[in-house]
User: Which sequence fits this backbone?
């Protein structure tokens, strides 16, 4: 069952909408390269769209009614948005869940050192990466430094044209005989992914100062950001590809950028919420952290944040009880919105063509994920899959179904199984990506637009 290419159905007016939304998204991922930056930007956009901070709702004792819009932030790195529906929340919600963390390099707690007149930052890679893809690229530094006095300092270096960039060096081809004999997993070792940041010694440094280049770095950090070396102990600084996402292809039909996984699902999920007025069932957009490392911790999907904030929203609606909360979660329908692997003509051997995702054919549904024998998978029911098909067809949304490669090639998972633990109906959906988990990933603008249309149709069912 070959699915139709979505580009074929667009009128000139519709095509303009596809490109306009693609440009809106391209600017978003160019600006928001960390989970904190995503939350900050979406909060700003949500406030402009009439969403109220749930903390203020709770503090004021205000009661919520159908059509009210609220959001809650989880420790600056995740959030949930609700639009209250006409039905009692006990009858269930329509939930769009996505993650906003992406593979990257994190600075270690004691990162700064000097070696042979070069100042370096020690890193620990985050998420599943091919380490060799991260060398010889211009990299930027994004993050936050929390100081002992309770203040925080925002770091963003490498994005403006006048900013310096950083990078991980690689061995020259002339001396890489032994390196080239290694397996790809060992060509670049994790402990060799240190970032070069300076080479100029501090002028007028005390003769007792042995590491003069490191001293110069500390002098710059003190002058520009007011931070000391010890402040790295309470910092979260991420090393990410520098530069804006770009239109890709002669026809401008694609976008190459950092962090499509999973902001290419998170952003259209939020955008779909903006088009909802007063839904029958409460609409929810849930954006979480830590998916790339197992959804663990206080800001991951495995935390109690979503359960707790749903209880708070129900309390503000005057409908909370422990049993009502359990029923609200169990009666909900959810889309676990995460990316899928696009078929790559350069690597056909890992895909099974009948069950692969293709560029331009619309949003992708993965009935199940997992590895090999569906290990660790959420497996949506046939009935729920039929319901989703019906919603897509009624709303003229282009969609396709896929698996993550051939059965024995590997696999992967999403937050779907965690939502499924509440006994709700959930299926994986999202956008097909080339170069997944590489510093620069590629998506189709048609698939991005169809994902937004899918999420709108799902929320308005």
Assistant:
């Amino acid at each position: 069952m070959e699915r139709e290419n979505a580009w074929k159905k667009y009128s000139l007016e519709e095509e303009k909408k596809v490109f306009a939304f693609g440009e809106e998204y391209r600017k978003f991922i160019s600006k928001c390269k960390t989970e904190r930056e995503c939350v900050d930007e979406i909060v700003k956009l949500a406030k402009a769209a009439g969403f109220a901070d749930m903390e203020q709702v709770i503090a004021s004792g205000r009661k919520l009614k159908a059509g009210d819009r609220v959001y809650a932030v989880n420790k600056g790195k995740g959030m949930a948005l609700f639009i209250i529906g006409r039905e009692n929340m006990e009858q269930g919600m329509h939930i769009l869940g996505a993650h906003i963390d992406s593979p990257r390099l994190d600075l270690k707690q004691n990162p700064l050192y000097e070696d042979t007149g070069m100042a370096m930052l020690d890193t620990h890679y985050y998420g599943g990466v091919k380490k060799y893809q991260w060398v010889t690229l211009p990299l930027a530094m994004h993050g936050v430094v929390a100081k002992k006095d309770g203040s925080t300092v925002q770091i963003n270096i490498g994005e403006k044209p006048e900013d310096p960039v950083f990078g991980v060096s690689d061995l020259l081809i002339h001396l890489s005989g032994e390196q080239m004999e290694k397996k790809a997993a060992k060509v670049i070792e994790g402990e060799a992914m240190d970032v070069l940041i300076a080479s100029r010694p501090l002028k007028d440094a005390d003769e007792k100062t042995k590491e003069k280049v490191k001293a110069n770095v500390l002098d710059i950090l003190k002058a520009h950001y007011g931070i000391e070396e010890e402040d790295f102990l309470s910092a979260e600084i991420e090393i990410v590809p520098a530069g804006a996402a770009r239109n890709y292809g002669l026809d401008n039909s694609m976008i190459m950028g950092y962090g499509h996984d999973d902001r290419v699902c998170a952003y259209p999920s939020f955008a779909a919420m903006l088009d909802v007025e007063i839904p029958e069932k409460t609409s929810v957009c849930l954006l979480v952290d830590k998916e790339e490392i197992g959804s663990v911790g206080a800001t991951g999907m495995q935390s109690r944040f979503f359960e707790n904030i749903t209880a708070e929203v129900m309390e503000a609606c005057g409908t909370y009880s422990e049993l009502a909360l359990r029923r609200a979660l169990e009666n909900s329908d959810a889309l676990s919105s995460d990316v899928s692997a696009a078929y790559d003509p350069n690597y056909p051997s890992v895909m099974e063509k009948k069950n692969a995702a293709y560029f331009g054919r619309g949003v992708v549904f993965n009935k199940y994920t997992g590895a090999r024998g569906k290990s660790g998978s959420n497996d949506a029911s046939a009935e729920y899959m039929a319901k989703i098909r019906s919603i897509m067809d009624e709303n003229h949304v282009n969609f396709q179904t896929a698996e993550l490669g051939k059965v024995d090639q590997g696999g992967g998972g999403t937050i779907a199984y965690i939502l499924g633990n509440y006994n709700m109906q959930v299926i994986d959906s999202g956008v097909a990506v080339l170069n997944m988990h590489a510093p620069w990933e590629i998506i189709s603008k048609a698939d991005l637009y169809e994902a937004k249309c899918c999420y709108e149709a799902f929320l308005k069912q």
